[in-house]
Amino acid sequence: MKFPLYIAKRYLKSKSGNNIINIVTILACLGVVAGTTALFIVLSVFSGIENYSLGILKASTPDLRISPKKGKTFIIDEHFSEVMESLSHTTFYTKILEERAFFKNKDKEEIAYIKGVDSLFNKVTPLDSLIIVGDWFDNNSKNACITEYQLTRKLDLNVYSDLLQVYVPKPGKGYITTSTKTINTIKPQVVGVISSQNQDENKYVYVPLTLCQQLLSKTPNEISYIDLATENDEQLNKTLKYLNQKLPRFKIEKREEINGSFYKILNSEKLIAYLVSLLVVVLVLSNTSGTIIMVIVDKKKDINTLSNLGTPLKNIRLIFSIYGFFLNLAGMIIGIGIGVLMVRMQLYYKLIMITPSVAYPIAFEWGNIWIVSTTIVVFGALASVLASGRISKKLTTNNRQQ
Prior knowledge:
The protein is an alpha+beta fold.
């Protein structure tokens, strides 16, 4: 191994007598640099978009959610209350009641969801930070609501001046005779508007929990689910394990499971971007293969000499495999260095902006460096081995005869 490594290093350090070979080698190395930089930046951009999206999602989605395995609602009994009270003092939970409803304002109508929340709701999911007009209703409010921006526009609502009409069918069986006896209605005042990038949040109207229970004819202890917020990931995992043991009749989901489709889309987009960039990298590495083949042709005399000295064919092939590997490795190191520099510049100097106040999202992650390095090393080594495989016994025999 030492001998092929020594010869390969000499070929890299010394210039060829043929200037075309020198130029092609430099261009091949620059191609690896460009491909590596592009792959790293693409992955960093998608990591930034993922972090940005998850940051928005965190404001509207809890760490954990407890919901019934069957049915839409459940009643909080004594055992359930004891389990919740035994949680860590740094774990907050909020009771929520949710149902589909019909909303009307003047001649505007829309079907969406009404969500009743208690006083701890914003400690678990800080939606109050997304208020763009008005304020979140206080703990003593009994007839107020918060609407999201798109729904506010569709219903042409005005904060503090409009009463939103909400209609929900009364629970029961049998034929409907009169609408007054079969429909519950409330008219809460709009006191705030939120704007969220989470599409799932664009269908809700938030009201106090007691008002929602009154509308849906529910008892004070009847809710749809409970959302929880924990201090850190370690506590999250402990709480999840504890709740699964104590509440086997309930479905307990993490944020990733609550928004499963959202996470799948993010991961799919990053995978597609990686595969597209990988095609570019493979094309670039094919240039390296071409360069190695040209170097092999240029070094025919050296190959002949090595063969005459008794060097095994596999060692001769190994020389040029190592040569191509080092060529790709040099390009990879330079490319990652340039990529890291460009990512850092975007993070600190915000060179590219989406809006005057929001920079284009990007993130520096060591995992991306590992992915890029592994990709270049694996495919670069494969390209080098394939190219060096062009050296055959026939070639060394022909050289010997010449």
